[in-house]
Amino acid sequence: MSTAESIEVQASAPSNQTGYRSFTLGGFSFSRDEYFARVSWMAKGQQMSHSMSADAFLRAMMRDVAWGFFYGWVNFDPVIGTRNHYGTVDMYAGSYYPAYRDSGLDHMENFDSRLMMATFKAILDDWTNEGFDPFAAPEEAGDGWHGKKNGNNRAAIERAREACHRMPGLPGDASLRSDANGFPINRAFADVPQDAPEVYAEPGFEAEVSAFNLFAFLSRSDVTWNPSVTSVCGRSLACPTTEEYILPIKHGNDRVEWFVQLSDQIEWEIEDKHTGSPRAKVLMKAGDVAAMPADIRHQGFARKRSMLLVWENATPNLPELYESGQLKPWPVEF
Amino acid sequence: MNSFQTTFGSLQDYEKGGIEIVADNPMYYAFSNIFEVANQSAPYEKVAVAVNLGYVIEAVRLEGQSGWYAAPHDEFAIVMDGEVEVHFIKLADPAAAYTDDSKGSIPLAAQPAGTPMGRVVARRGHQVLLPEGAAYRFTAHSVGVMLIQTMDGPATVHKWGQICLK
């Protein structure tokens, strides 16, 4: 299978039993059947494999693709995941799971980001059936993820992450969301006021005197656990998102990030980044602010769709500064 | 019928979450609540509630009229409770307000010379651009809270030991 960038994705012919293709990326093999996605690798001369429910696998892979492998580690579950080196990406199985790693049964390989992205997109495209949206909350995702191959849902999996240059609504910048451009108010935010700020710009200053309703913008998000960028101050990015049910991955930080809970609540399970050992649980309610240290992995649980402001620092050399110990993994001492 | 109720906080009505420690130090999470912070702040005191290598998010109590500020970079305000009116002036002489090395919101001694740019009236959930090269001033007729995304500057107040869970 060849992509537009002439990157060769290694894919099999469709299975005559299920209709799904299998894929190979270096020493990893990917296959799915009616219910399960399976990742296989060789270690110490034996075939190893790990299975996930196909819906959970697709939800995790959807985030990894949409986020461009994000900042640091994207753990699909305790065994498999990716680590972003910003140009190249590690794929691993068991490398951050002590029972595999300590027995030498884990496997990790580094790939050019473009090859991994092309492979993951091809897997998503082939394994996502019509009637399943891996980006959506359970009530909206549809039930079509299981069974034999049945069409596709490219409209869902090819959504682009929205990122402004300065602020949405400014001339030439990202658009505001509305019914007219395909963003109706989500059922869980039907009570969120949609009023606009009053903007009185003097002639000539229309591009600088500007404001928009951020909460209304978020109430129209059609996806969950997928940050947009809504303001840029140097390398500081405000990345609000709407969260419902469970974050489909465990995000391992390669830098400190911050959460500001704008509405409702989320519980965060915090684990050691390298071992998965539990460290803490953080319960955030509206108005709460908390740092996520650079040496943890975290997974969120939201019983009702909520608004979360994820605040990131996109300074390029941050991972090296934390990895080398030049920066402590926590942001402040008091 | 919609059965969902979205919960926002306010100065008068908020619940603070918390941390259950298994094997950790609560300090690492610098956990605070912006409404609790604002309830303990002076009007327009710019209290850092998040910091990341020179960048900050500040929780600011809205009450009455602020002084004038300006910044050599964009800043952004999000109103979390109440209503605020923001007036803008295009600086006639930015060098009189700050230097090339300045960061964060720079307090100005008085209303600066320049061209009026306009104003914004913002309520809960509204985000306002505080553009580079403009002076701005806040007016609130009742108390409220806003967040400001900016850089760590001369007006930023760090009092982590007073605001964070221990």
Describe this structure in words.
The complex is a heterodimer of chains A (334) and B (166). With 334 residues, chain A is an alpha+beta fold. Chain A starts with 9 loop residues before the first strand and ends in an 11-residue tail after the last helix. In chain A, the strands form two sheets. In chain A, strands 6, 7, 8, 9, 12, 13, 14, 15, 16, 17, 18 and 19 form a twelve-stranded antiparallel β-sheet that branches. Chain A folds into two domains: 10-156, no CATH class; 161-222 and 224-323, Jelly Rolls. The model of chain A has no long low-confidence stretch (mean pLDDT 96). In chain A, strand 6 (73-75) and strand 7 (80-84) form a beta hairpin. Chain A has seven helices and 19 strands. Chain A is globular and about 70 Å long. Chain B has a single domain (26-163), classed as Jelly Rolls, CATH 2.60.120. The radius of gyration of chain B is 17 Å and the shape is globular. In chain B, strands 3, 4, 5, 6, 7, 8, 9, 10, 11 and 12 form a ten-stranded mixed β-sheet that branches. Chain B has 166 residues and is mainly β. Chain B has helices at residues 34-39, 94-97, 160-163, and strands at residues 18-21, 32-33, 46-52, 55-65, 69-70, 75-81, 83-91, 106-107, 114-123, 126-130, 134-151, 156-157. The interface between A and B is large, with 77 and 71 residues. Strand 10 (198-201) of chain A pairs antiparallel with strand 9 (114-123) of chain B.
